[in-house]
Write a structure and sequence with these properties.
The protein has seven helices and eight strands. By secondary structure, it is of the alpha/beta class. The protein has a single domain, classed as Rossmann fold, CATH 3.40.50.150. α2 links the parallel β1 and β2. The longest helix is centred in the middle third of the chain and has 11 residues.
């Protein structure tokens, strides 16, 4: 299992109610059901991924996250996961507020655009392509690029409290120089209210 998925799993208590927003093929949900005995739903926009989820027994709702999470009541889930999906959302602040509205806590992960090799590539006149940003500029699903500092500033404005943060590069934890040495970041957050 990828280290980021292992960290997500460690942040989730057994038998929790979990919502994975942008669940892809449902791999994380299947692991959580098997290893943590959670009750979980996924939300996924792409029909091909929805079909894979259904085939693999993952409960999934086909929906575009841009419309929010109005299907769910406040604090309906113990944990809401937004793993490597935030950068694909146009209305970023709204979805952040929604995940902490419907979840008692949320796990948010994204590629860090502040990583030094990404910065260097931009300085050299090209958009970065890496393990965490694997697409070319013309075929990327990403509509936003952000850094750790950008996320933390927006979180504060949106009424979101950061409970924990882990920064990785190639599955190893970064202990200093987070915003320029880490290529992937994981946040555990909750609503300030």
């Amino acid at each position: 299992m990828r280290n980021d998925l292992s960290i997500i799993e460690n942040w989730i208590n057994p038998s929790s109610h979990v919502l994975d927003c942008g669940c892809g093929d449902g791999e994380l949900i299947k692991d959580l059901i098997t290893n943590k005995h959670v009750f979980a739903y996924g939300i996924e926009k792409e029909i091909e991924n929805v079909e894979i989820c259904v085939k693999n027994g993952v409960q999934v709702i086909q929906q575009d996250l841009e419309s929010g999470l109005a299907l769910f009541d406040d604090k309906f889930f113990d944990v809401v996961i937004l793993s490597q999906t935030l950068q694909t959302i146009h209305n970023t602040q709204h979805i952040l507020q929604e995940v902490v509205r419907v979840g008692k806590k949320a796990i948010i992960t994204f590629p860090n655009f502040g990583y030094w090799k990404h910065r260097l590539r931009v300085i050299n006149g090209r958009m970065p392509v890496s393990k965490t940003l694997p697409y070319e500029w013309y075929n990327t699903p990403n509509v936003r690029v952000l850094t750790l500092d950008d996320f933390e500033i927006l979180s504060h404005k949106a009424g979101i409290k950061v409970m924990d943060r882990i920064v990785l590069h190639e599955n190893k934890k970064i202990t200093w120089g987070h915003n320029w040495r880490g290529s992937l970041v994981l946040y555990l957050v909750t609503s300030i209210n």
